[in-house]
Amino acid sequence: MIKQIMTKRTLIVIGVLAVWFVANSLLKKTEHTKNPACHDKQTVRFKHISAESFNESINIKGYTTAWKNACLKARTSGEIKKVHVVCGEKVKKGQLLVELSDDARAEKLAQARSQAAARRLEYNASSKMGHLQYHSRSEVANKKALYYSALFDEKQAELDLEFTKIAAPFSGVVNSIDLNEGASVTVAVPVISVAELDPMKVVAFCSNKDISKIKVDQSVTLNLDGIKREISGQVIAVSHVADSQTRNYKVEIKIDNPNDQIADGMAVSGKIIIGSAVGFFIPSSAIVLSDDGALGIKIINDDNKPEFIPVSIVSMQDDGAWISGPQMKNLKLITVGQDYVIDGEEIAYVPE
Questions:
Q1: Other C-beta atoms within 10 Å of 325: how many?
Q2: Which of 2, 123, 196, 241 could share a disulfide with 172, CB 3.0–4.6 Å?
Q3: How many CA atoms, within 13 angstroms, populate the side-chain half-sphere of residue 237?
Q4: Phi/psi of residue 260, each to 5°?
């Protein structure tokens, strides 16, 4: 009997304790739900950044092309007697490149000069006789016409002989040789081409939102395929008529090429420096979107809480972006966890 009473009392005590434990747990859970401070705080990483001066730039892409490119054509007919250069050879302005056969042109020139000299004597004599009224005006005019006709023939003979020699119009490199020795040519047939590669020209393209910012004489930094160092250049021409296909605008840039390292047709990327500005350089990954789609960043404000700040991207770089917008000079930029915190909530934060 006593054992039964003791067992009942034990069960009652255990029951009371169980009820108290459950009630206490529910009370704590209720308090934890009602009190946000009891939640685990979101941890973010941040980085101190300061406003800096930088060169505002526009990114461009394009290709290299020769400064000058001339296709030299035959200006008289004949046979190619001698090709004095090879493809790829450097040449100086006025250097003889190709020589056509003479074909008695020198003799024809000598004959034309003799004929012109004789006509000059006849005209001078007739002019004197005209002053003495021994020749009529028509006779004098006829001798004059014959003299000028002979001068024309002489000049034609000079040019015909001169055209047998094709010389470089400027210093550069032989780009192609279209005909070999012994080939016959007629007027306007391409014979040889020459390209000037120092300086070089870069042809690049920009969008309509950037064209108004680009001016002649602005500085440019370029990177070329196969060239490890940066190349400096200068804007020399800006088109204000868009390409009919791409709707982009052409920009021409002058670069030096003293050692002929840069070839025609190389791919180019670079930046046109359009001015100086003050902004913040941040990792591209730190840029976030607000609920309404605005670009911005998340910072830790003076209350040590996250805050969204709208920004404008001034210039994109390979390793980050220059932005403007924040009015303060120094920021605590959230770089890790910025996508998971809400403005004004309590957070834990640690520096990078």
A1: 15
A2: 196
A3: 9
A4: 55, 30
Mean pLDDT of the chain: 86
What structural domains and CATH numbers belong to the chain? 42-54+278-351 (2.40.420.20), 59-66+195-276 (2.40.30.170), 102-163 (1.10.287)
Distance CA 217, CA 336 (A): 42
Give the C-alpha separation, 202 to 63, whole Å.
Answer: 6
Residue 75: the pLDDT is 94
Tokens of 284: 């591209």
CA distance 325 to 313: 9
Q: Which of 162, 161, 160, 169 is nearest to 95 (CA)?
A: 169
User: Is the Cβ–Cβ distance between 349 and 46 less than 8 Å?
Assistant: yes
Residue 217 in 3-state DSSP?
A: coil
Q: How far apart are CA 146 and CA 56, in angstroms?
A: 71
Dig out the tokens for 213 from the structure: 């910012």
Rounded to an integer, what distance in angstroms lies between the CA atom of residue 121 and that of residue 154? 15
> Residue 259: what pLDDT?
84
Asked whether the beta carbons of 282 and 334 are under 8 A apart, the reply is: no
Between the alpha carbon of residue 88 and those of residues 68, 175, 263, the distances in Å are: 15, 6, 12
Going along 51-189, which residue ranges are E strands? 52-73, 78-83, 90-91, 96-100, 165-167, 172-177, 184-185
| Number of neighbouring beta carbons within 10 Å of residue 196 | 21
CB-CB contact of 101 with 81 (8 Å):
yes
Q: What confidence tens digit (pLDDT) does each residue in 196-236 have?
A: 999 999 999 999 988 999 999 999 999 988 787 889 999 99
pTM of the model: 0.66
